[in-house]
Amino acid sequence: MDTAELEKSKAYITVEIIEYLPNSVVIKTILKKSTGNISVMSFDVGEGLTEKISPFDTFVQIIEGEAELFIDGNSFLLSIGESIIIPAHRSHRISPNGRFKMIMTVIKSGYE
User: Fold this and answer.
1) What pTM value is reported for the model?
2) How far is CA 108 from each of CA 25, 29, 33, 71, 84, rounded to the nearest angstrom?
3) Deepest of 24, 28, 44, 70, by most Cβ within 10 A of its Cβ?
4) Residue 97: its pLDDT value, please?
């Protein structure tokens, strides 16, 4: 995982920030602060995120392909341009439907 932030005051095409790697999930940090972070992620075929519970709200937006997201067992099929907020303290996982890329924004403030 590359934890270096992107250069500020520079325009980017978000979907081109990150590439696919065979059999891998790749994460690139866009912005990292004590109050939260924004990352862009690529998932190769068959790769996803295992079930977990985060103490923070998380915003997910699909920017290429599609993925199935489960929140407390409820299924949501997301395609390019679609997004969802995963509530804090909720069980969730992400399953691929082929290769896909997404932006993940974690908001840490408000839970002190």
Assistant:
1) 0.88
2) 23, 16, 9, 19, 17
3) 28
4) 84
Residue 112 has what pLDDT?
52
pLDDT reported for residue 30: 93
Q: What is the mean pLDDT of each run of 10 residues along the chain (112 residues)?
A: 76 93 95 93 94 95 96 96 96 92 90 56
Strands (DSSP E) found in the chain: 25-33, 36-43, 49-53, 57-71, 74-79, 83-86, 91-107
Report d(CA 40, CA 59) in Å as an integer: 12
Contacts of 80 (CB under 8 A, 6+ apart): 62, 63, 64, 65, 66
DSSP state of 107: E
CB atoms within 10 A of CB 77: 12
CA 53 to chain centre: 14
What is the distance between the alpha carbons of residues 58 and 1, in angstroms, rounded to a whole number?
Answer: 19
Taking alpha carbons only, the member of 20, 21, 15, 40 closest to residue 30 is: 40
- Domain ranges within the chain, ordered by starting residue: 14-107
